[in-house]
Amino acid sequence: MKKVTVFSLLLSLSPVILNFLFNLAPWNSLFSEFSGSESKPENSVTSSDSVFTLSALSLNSLPLAAPEESVGQLESLHNEELQSKLEAILHSNRHWVELSKSNSLSIGIVDMQDPLHSRFASINENNMVYAASLPKIAVLLASEDAIEQGKLVETSAVKADMRLMIAKSNNEAATRMIERVGIKQIGQVLQNPRYNLYDLQNGGGLWVGKAYGKGNVRIGDPIKNLSHAATVMEVCKYYYMLAFGQLVSPERSKEMLGFLVNPELHHKFVSVLDRVAPDAKVYRKSGTWANWHADSALVWDKNRRYIVVALAEDAKGETMLRELMQKIDNVLVSKG
């Protein structure tokens, strides 16, 4: 009789006991491991609120729709393997090595094949130099910022000038945009902590302090007193943020990409990309004056997702940038 009573008592308590055991932390963790309820998806980035996976991105078009908290800061994406490959490219030509040692050659590349795990490598990344027309991308940013804030009306004439300024590097169009926005306002946008595209603590960066071709107003950059300047770090950052829709707003970033795509000057980087990647989307701005040669591009198709920037001071800079582009593309596409 006692045995039956004890057995009945245990049977009645069993749901309570089982519930207690499975709510203990170790058991709960073990159960989750086997059930897969807490498994982390491959190629994912974890935030305090959610897990965002690469598969959620539409990689076919830019800008990418990724939560801001899932996008790493470019400064933190230095990659040793990619750096070694870039240095191997540099050392394939003795003259390039000499130029880099004298700060006459700077290179930056961002491998975005897996955008949420991008990789960055550079040569002389914070060496600010005269960059001719390349900094017109800063005028584009300041213009879109002014439009967003209601300080500039987006007329058909404004749109036409922004396209001319970027695609054909037209100086008159650039000057009209600078006059509309204001030299001081451009500098303020570049130094805005939201972008930090001119970084006083790290050698400077993008700068436009004078109209192109005419105008008496000149505000040299605070470090070297240059009128039109760039570093490969800040230009790479510009394109990287643009790819993720982080310049002004996703809508404004998309419009900026529209002005940058399909460049109408087919030299330097583009002369190579026309041949090796004729179907790729190329978002690009270059610059040349005397011996200063600059080029920058965001390249996008199923095999190519990367940013490349080069700033050179050399009489044969045009040829040099073509050769660099070919070697960099070979490395980034083959991953070799």
From TrEMBL:
Catalytic activity: a beta-lactam + H2O = a substituted beta-amino acid
Pfam families, alphabetized: Beta-lactamase2 (PF13354)
Residue span, Beta-lactamase class A catalytic domain: 162-311
GO biological process: beta-lactam antibiotic catabolic process; response to antibiotic
GO molecular function (one): beta-lactamase activity
UniProt keyword annotation of Hydrolase present: yes
Gene3D superfamilies named among the record's database cross-references: DD-peptidase/beta-lactamase superfamily
Family recorded in the similarity comment: Belongs to the class-A beta-lactamase family.
Name of the featured protein: beta-lactamase
Organism: Candidatus Opimibacter skivensis
Organism ancestry: Bacteria, Pseudomonadati, Bacteroidota, Saprospiria, Saprospirales
